[in-house]
C-alpha cells in the first residue's frame, strides 16, 4: 500500500458530525483520514480555521479548496441556462454542489493516495446518492463510506465522543435545523418544519429579508451573453459576482423564498424551506430573454427538456450521459441568448419591465397594430382553412354519427 496506512478522504464541513467522523472512522476502520473542505460560497467560518480544526480532530492531512468560481461557472451557469427548478420550484442548491465537492474529493483521494471517500450524509436523503453516484461516475475504482449510515455514528454518539475526546467543537449549541447553503441558495429542514402545517418563523431565513416590509423598489438591468450574465447595470461581472450581487439586492427585497414539500429520490416526501434570491432573479431574467430570442419550436422543446434536466440533476445524474447530452443541446440553444433584461425587484418579486437584444426575434413591424405593419393579414384566411382542416373533417364525422357537440335545448333569450 505504499508509505502510509490505507487512507480515507472525508468531505469535511467543520461541524460536529464530520469533526467526530475523523476519529470515529480511524477507530472503526483502522485507516487514516484526510479531511477536505470545499468552499462553494457557503460563507460562515474561515476555511483555514476549519482546516486547523480537522487537524486538531486527528486528520492526517487537511485540505481546503476555493471552488467558488468553479461552482458558479461550471455548475450554477448550466443550471441557469436550463432555468432549472425541480418540481417547478427548487433551484437545486444542494444538488448542484455535490458534484463539484465530489470532484475535489476525488482529486484529493488521488493526491493523498486514498482508496475510499467518506461523507457525512444520513441514509435517508438525496445527498448520499449524489456523492456516491458522482464518485462512481468519476472514479469507478474508489469505495464510499458514510459513517452516520454505515458506522452507527448517531447524533448522541457524536456528542458523547466529542466530549470524551475534548474535540475543539461545540456540542451544546443546539440548532434545531439542518442547513445546507452555498452561493446558489440555502436549504433549511427538520425541527418544527417537519409538521407541514407549521409556517416558517423569521429565524429560518438569513439570505432574505421579510418581503412584507420591503425597502424602496430596486431597478436592475442584467446583461447576458449566450445565456450567462456578464454585466449588472452596465458593470461587468463574473458569474460568481452576478450571483452574489443579486443575492444581496434580491435578498433585501425578500425574493426567492420557497416553502415546499418535495419528492426525494429515496421515495419519501420531505418539507424544505429554501431561499435563493440571486438564483430566482437570474432565472426570471434569463427565461425572459429566451422568450425574446429563441425560435418558437426550440423554445417549447427546451422547456420540456428543462424539467427533465432538473430531475436528472436532483436525482444524482450530473455526470450521466443523458445529462451531458442535454448540456450540449442546451448550449446550442444559448447562441442567441444575448441582451439586456430590466427588472424591478420589490416586495418578494422580480418583475420584468423591459427587454433589449440585438439577436431578438421580436419584429416590431410584424407585431404592431399601428402604421408600419408589415404582416399581410390576407394570408391568414388560407392558412386557417388548411390548419383547421383535420378538426373540420373530424367534426363533420361526429355529426354524421350523432356524436356532435350537444348545445342543449335552452332558450338563449338574454332576458332569462
Ligand atoms: N432537499 C434538498 C435536496 O435534496 C436539500 C438537501 C439538504 N438540505 C438540508 N437542509 N440539509 O437537494
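Q: What amino acid sequence fits the structure above?
A:
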Amino acid at each position: 500500500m505504499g508509505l502510509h496506512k490505507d487512507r480515507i478522504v472525508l468531505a469535511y464541513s467543520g461541524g460536529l458530525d464530520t469533526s467526530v467522523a475523523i476519529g470515529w472512522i480511524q477507530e472503526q476502520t483502522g485507516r487514516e483520514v484526510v479531511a477536505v473542505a470545499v468552499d462553494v460560497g457557503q460563507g460562515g467560518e474561515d476555511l483555514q480555521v476549519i482546516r486547523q480544526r480537522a487537524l486538531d480532530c486527528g486528520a492526517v492531512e487537511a485540505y481546503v479548496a476555493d471552488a467558488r468560481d468553479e461552482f458558479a461557472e461550471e455548475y450554477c451557469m448550466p443550471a441557469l441556462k436550463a432555468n432549472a427548478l425541480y418540481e417547478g420550484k427548487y433551484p437545486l442548491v444542494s444538488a448542484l454542489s455535490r458534484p463539484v465537492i465530489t470532484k475535489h474529493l476525488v482529486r484529493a483521494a488521488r493526491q493523498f493516495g486514498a482508496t475510499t471517500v467518506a461523507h457525512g450524509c444520513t441514509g435517508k436523503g438525496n445527498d448520499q446518492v449524489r456523492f456516491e453516484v458522482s464518485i462512481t461516475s468519476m472514479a469507478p475504482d474508489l469505495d464510499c463510506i458514510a459513517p452516520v449510515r454505515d458506522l452507527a455514528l448517531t447524533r448522541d454518539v457524536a456528542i458523547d465522543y466529542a466530549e470524551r475526546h475534548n474535540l475543539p467543537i461545540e456540542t451544546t449549541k443546539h440548532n434545531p435545523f439542518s442547513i445546507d447553503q452555498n452561493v446558489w441558495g440555502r436549504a433549511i429542514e427538520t425541527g418544527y418544519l417537519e409538521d407541514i402545517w407549521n409556517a416558517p418563523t423569521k429565524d429560518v431565513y438569513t439570505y432574505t429579508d421579510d418581503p412584507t416590509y420591503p425597502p424602496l423598489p430596486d431597478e436592475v438591468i442584467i446583461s447576458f451573453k449566450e445565456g450567462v450574465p456578464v454585466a449588472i447595470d452596465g458593470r461587468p461581472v463574473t458569474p460568481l459576482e452576478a450571483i452574489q450581487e443579486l443575492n444581496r439586492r434580491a435578498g433585501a427585497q425578500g425574493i426567492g423564498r420557497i416553502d415546499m414539500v418535495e419528492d426525494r429520490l429515496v421515495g419519501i416526501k420531505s418539507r424544505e424551506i429554501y431561499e435563493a434570491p440571486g438564483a430566482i432573479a437570474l432565472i426570471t431574467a434569463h427565461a425572459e430573454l429566451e422568450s425574446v430570442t429563441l425560435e418558437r419550436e426550440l423554445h417549447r422543446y427546451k422547456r420540456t427538456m428543462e424539467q427533465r434536466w432538473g430531475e436528472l440533476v436532483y436525482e444524482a445524474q450530473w455526470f450521466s450521459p443523458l445529462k451531458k447530452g442535454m448540456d450540449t443541446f442546451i448550449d446550442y440553444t444559448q447562441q442567441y441568448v444575448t441582451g439586456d433584461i430590466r427588472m424591478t425587484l420589490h416586495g418578494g418579486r422580480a418583475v420584468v419591465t423591459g427587454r433589449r437584444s440585438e439577436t431578438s426575434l421580436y419584429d416590431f413591424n410584424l407585431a404592431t397594430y399601428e402604421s408600419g405593419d408589415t404582416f399581410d393579414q390576407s394570408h391568414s384566411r388560407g392558412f386557417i382553412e388548411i390548419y383547421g382542416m383535420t378538426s373540420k373533417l373530424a367534426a363533420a364525422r361526429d355529426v354524421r354519427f350523432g356524436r356532435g357537440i350537444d348545445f342543449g335545448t335552452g332558450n338563449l333569450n338574454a332576458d332569462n
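Q: And what stands out in the fold?
A: The pocket of arginine is lined by residues 94-95, 126-127, 178-180, 187-189, 272 (CB under 6 Å).
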